[in-house]
TrEMBL record:
<dbReference type="InterPro" id="IPR029063">
    <property type="entry name" value="SAM-dependent_MTases_sf"/>
</dbReference>
<dbReference type="InterPro" id="IPR001525">
    <property type="entry name" value="C5_MeTfrase"/>
</dbReference>
<comment type="similarity">
    <text>Belongs to the class I-like SAM-binding methyltransferase superfamily. C5-methyltransferase family.</text>
</comment>
<dbReference type="Pfam" id="PF00145">
    <property type="entry name" value="DNA_methylase"/>
</dbReference>
<keyword id="KW-0680">Restriction system</keyword>
<dbReference type="GO" id="GO:0044027">
    <property type="term" value="P:negative regulation of gene expression via chromosomal CpG island methylation"/>
</dbReference>
<keyword id="KW-0489">Methyltransferase</keyword>
<protein>
    <recommendedName>
        <fullName>Cytosine-specific methyltransferase</fullName>
        <ecNumber>2.1.1.37</ecNumber>
    </recommendedName>
</protein>
<keyword id="KW-0949">S-adenosyl-L-methionine</keyword>
<dbReference type="GO" id="GO:0009307">
    <property type="term" value="P:DNA restriction-modification system"/>
</dbReference>
<dbReference type="GO" id="GO:0003886">
    <property type="term" value="F:DNA (cytosine-5-)-methyltransferase activity"/>
</dbReference>
<feature type="active site">
    <location>
        <position position="103"/>
    </location>
</feature>
<dbReference type="InterPro" id="IPR018117">
    <property type="entry name" value="C5_DNA_meth_AS"/>
</dbReference>
<keyword id="KW-0808">Transferase</keyword>
<dbReference type="GO" id="GO:0003677">
    <property type="term" value="F:DNA binding"/>
</dbReference>
<dbReference type="GO" id="GO:0032259">
    <property type="term" value="P:methylation"/>
</dbReference>
<dbReference type="InterPro" id="IPR050390">
    <property type="entry name" value="C5-Methyltransferase"/>
</dbReference>
């Protein structure tokens, strides 16, 4: 049903896109909180909600994406802002910090300039984690990030997180393993507090990567 709505909206080029977010697919009880950045059109946000989280804020810079978020997550706190200027301190202690920081710097379809690319926001994510001190972290990106040319950068990100007390790991996940009718493989950085048992659904069936973070 969700796919039908999206396709219809795409065909008529009408923004914001609308997909079904009925109570059927939204769990009634949201006991955990999430701060999501670079929320885009809300694909990940929908999954986060379905995993039982309530968003305290959705941060996104693109106006059209924000309109889509507001339409599909009525009443939610959509913050239309550049992440570089975002102050996360009101959300200190949030259960989950998550997001899909821009993938262009790591995409095989681009120049793969990594941290040299102005669009890279991993260090902004680290700043926000430092200031908001979430209980868990999950950042998604393309698998290009797992290429050996980015080994040092991935380690750098892990070391920043370790300095902050987060023992994070890189993994690859395929959406098709989670009931999504699409093979979309992504690199995922996560640090899950063992007390956040509800998050198990997000991390099960993962394919482990070796110590250098290279896909095995
Ligand atoms: C890969 S998309 C995220 C997709 C999203 N996770 C989803 O499921 O729909 C990256 C998003 O980051 C946003 N973005 C890029 N630079 C940003 C910035 N400096 N501040 C806030 N958002 C930014 C883009 O507008 C884009 O929507």
């Amino acid at each position: 049903m969700a796919t039908r709505s999206v396709n219809k909206a795409v065909k008529s080029s009408v923004w914001p896109l609308s997909f079904s977010t009925s109570e059927k697919i939204r769990p009634a009880k949201h006991s955990l909180t999430a701060l999501e950045v670079c929320a885009g059109a809300g694909g990940q946000a929908l999954g986060i909600e379905r995993a039982g989280f309530r968003h305290v804020a959705l941060v996104e810079m693109d106006r059209h994406a924000c309109e889509t978020l507001r339409a599909n997550f009525p009443g939610s706190n959509v913050i239309e802002q550049d992440l570089r200027t975002f102050d996360p301190t009101p959300y200190h202690g949030v259960d989950l910090f998550c997001g899909g920081v821009p993938c262009q710097p790591f995409s095989q379809a681009g120049k793969m300039k990594g941290s040299e690319d102005d669009r890279d926001l991993f260090m902004e994510a680290i700043r926000i984690i430092e200031q908001a001190r979430p209980r868990a972290v999950m950042l998604e990106n393309v698998t290009g990030l797992l290429q050996s040319r980015f080994d040092d950068y991935r380690l750098d990100i892990l070391q920043h997180l370790r300095r902050l007390g987060y023992d994070a790991e890189w993994h690859t996940l395929n959406s098709a393993d989670y009931g999504v009718p699409q093979r979309r493989v992504r690199s995922v950085l996560e640090r899950v507090d063992i007390h956040l048992v509800q998050m198990n659904a997000l991390t099960r069936q993962r394919i482990d990567i070796n110590a250098r973070g290279v896909c095995s």
